[in-house]
Amino acid sequence: DMYSIEDVAQLIMDLKNANNTARISVKLVARVGIGVIASGVVKGKADHLTISGMSGGTGAAKWTSIKHCGLPWEIGVAETHQTLVLNG
To answer: Among the residues of 1-88, which ranges form H helices?
Structure first.
């Protein structure tokens, strides 16, 4: 489990050190405050960021979690874009 942006940044660094040609992708669920989380992931030097919406995820979660979490992806993308633009 990840508990902080620092944990995510450390994991990204560890993965890049293990394979310096790998492209690191992070998937987030759209929710209130996703912009701050996405900003931390970008600052952690992830190569790719995916924002999923409330209509499902990877299938690894419980059915109730898949169907009852998150916001529409459009809201997550809008908040993330706004936060990243404001933070440069």
So the answer is: 5-18, 34-43, 63-67, 73-87
